[in-house]
Amino acid sequence: PSRYSAMKEYLSELDKETKKALETFYGFSEGKSKVRRSVDDWNSTGSDFFQHIPLLKVEDFSRTATDLHSGQKRKIEGSVFHKDSSIVNSGDSNDIIGFQLCDANNSSECALYTFSSGVNAIQEWYKLHYMNIMAQIPLETKEKLSYSADDLLLTCFFDGLSCDKRHFTRFHHPLHGNCYTFNSGENGTILSTSTGGSEYGLQVVLYIDEADYNPFLVTSSGAKIIVHDQNEYPFIEDIGTEIETAAATSIGMHFTRSRKLSKPYSDCTETGADIPVENLYNKSYSLQICLHSCFQKAMVDSCGCAQYAQPLPAGAEYCNYKKNPNWMYCYYRLHEKFVKEQLGCQQICKDACSFKEWALTTSIAQWPSTVSEDWMLRVLSWDKGQKLNKKLNKTDLANLMVFYKDLNERFISENPANTLVILLSNFGGQLGLWMSCSVVCVIEIVEVFFIDSLSIVLRRQWQKAKKWWRDRQRGGSGKAPQAGDPERQGHDNPVCIDEDLPTFTTALRLPLPRDGPLPRTPPPNYSTLRLETAFTEQLPDTLELGQH
């Protein structure tokens, strides 16, 4: 987070009121005995923090609470929300602590947010005021108040080679301060590892200045990291992995690329262009980006300002007390609708069809070891001596190794179980198995029952049309056809009813003409059957034989 020593001038009044609340709640303060302080001892010249959001202690179930700043008891109006379990009026009321938010335009509309633990109540209360203060500080100033890459990095190795701050890109997180992305690709170069294993991954030693932490905003020491693609936005507060100090944390990775089918198989989106929500993060679409952008847009429309923890939409400004005195009440009301899915964001936003995942396996070992602690801390302190005026302690350091276990890329994709081609193949296979049908058989069936039937019907209609036209011509001339007319010859013979060419069978069934002689076929000339001798005279030898 941001350096607490550099932020004190902005947070002095808030810290003062927070310490007073701790003393009144639990009867202790820094450097003093644990004696509970009376509410009458409050300094009336304090800031306006408790006037905007008064801390309350609920005493009983009669909806009565005590204002810890003024000591007055008040009747709780409006709704009571128990933030720890989302159950209204749960737990022992004597131990419930919270704060009340009221509508600046209508003081009768209030909501009491209670917590079963004073730690959660004070942290939530502190966070609200912290965001209000940070929203009024320029970005350039906030970046200077946070740690630089030189302050954060002590040693760096990647793929067996040395690296430095030039390989890290800074981006400012609203709550975590300056964050740094290794291998972001913004300079046009993306580094790649040559071999799997811890020796060829990223190895860094981070400087964790635990003594300069904000004691009310952050209650754990260490660092948060997240592995993501160059085109993805790192949601550190949602899915970040925490690493602890005085330890060596090894994170082995398996890379998986997944792709789902879009409509009609699922309700995912390819690029998010079909989602009516503006992408405020300028990164590739994801469900989280859509949900956060949708809530921020609703925040601007409903409350007139943007929530500090999310990107700023065009033409809007972050909420603060001076310009938007009602923003906290509006924010909590809106967030309540968002959690209950009444805002419509969950219905509008869809999952991405393609996404990348890194499965992380984390292991922790004590670092530095007892035998090497002395010399390592001395050397690292000497390396940092120009900027650091104290000897390093092992709780100020964190050793991190991020590497691929192997270089195998896993690809998971969805394929349709049935397509048109598969359907036709299965249909044809079943027909061939049970009915011995094939494509040729189907074509023949279509030809016989459709093409041939259509041709027969068309031919019949054509014959009727020709006959009607011929009869019309004959009726107009007034002349009946004669037997010797040419029209009676061939297939135009009136006895030939069928227009098709006659066959042997149909020819036998033709009736004879009524007004004409029967056609006769002359008998064949059997001249070849007559015997004619080839010799005019009988041979002599035959004569002699005949005589004898």
TrEMBL record:
Catalytic reactions on record: Na(+)(in) = Na(+)(out)
Main subcellular localisation: membrane
Subcellular localization: Apical cell membrane
Claim: Cell membrane is one of the keywords in the record: yes
GO CC terms: apical plasma membrane; sodium channel complex
Bilayer disposition of the protein: Multi-pass membrane protein
Keywords: Cell membrane, Disulfide bond, Ion channel, Ion transport, Membrane, Sodium, Sodium channel, Sodium transport, Transmembrane, Transmembrane helix, Transport
InterPro entries with a match to the protein in the record: ENaC (IPR001873), ENaC_chordates (IPR004724), ENaC_CS (IPR020903)
One protein family per Pfam: ASC
Gene Ontology molecular function, alphabetical: ligand-gated sodium channel activity
Database matches in Gene3D superfamilies: Acid-sensing ion channels like domains, YojJ-like
Coiled coil: none
Region named Disordered: 472-496
Keyword Ion transport: yes
PANTHER family: AMILORIDE-SENSITIVE SODIUM CHANNEL SUBUNIT GAMMA, AMILORIDE-SENSITIVE SODIUM CHANNEL-RELATED
Entry similarity comment: Belongs to the amiloride-sensitive sodium channel (TC 1.A.6) family. SCNN1G subfamily.
Protein name: SCNNG protein
Lineage, uppermost ranks: Eukaryota, Metazoa, Chordata, Craniata, Vertebrata
